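Weekly puzzle thread! Below is a chain. First person to post its structure in token form gets bragging rights.
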Amino acid sequence: MEQLSDPRTSNSYALALLRIGVGTFFLIFGQYKVFGTAFTLHGGFQFWINKFLEGGAYPFMAPILRGFVLPHATSIAFLVAYGELAIGLALVPGFLVRAASSCGLLFMVTLLFSSDYPGAGAPLWQYFGASLSHSVFALCFAAFLVGRADSVWSIATLRKNR
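Winning reply:
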């Protein structure tokens, strides 16, 4: 493989690789929810919301989960399923990356506050530790918003113009 001497080019490749990897995860997460019915129509979504309410939700999120999310669970389950699939479909080829990343960041922050509460007496570091499954993806989405992660084709254009 050719060594990349321009840091902008190597950073673009790294960001594109990360974008494609995150997009692949979201394609996997979304496709089983969209093409199966366990999550959307047979209580999968409600199961997870109830699990979050048993001890994982931040105190300010619990009334939202009980009062709004659970009463509209089927509609929100479809929104989650198709949203995850759409994020993956946008990130893998690099189309509408900023829009998909904005939605992904909002989704990850919502999940973080819905499920990653370590408890009232927990030390600060446990808040970060408990949130790793969502905060890492949130940081990736933030990087896609700030950086140049739009598409692999823009990297090819960068190489031609050197």
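Puzzle host: Confirmed. Bonus trivia for everyone else. The longest helix spans residues 7-35.
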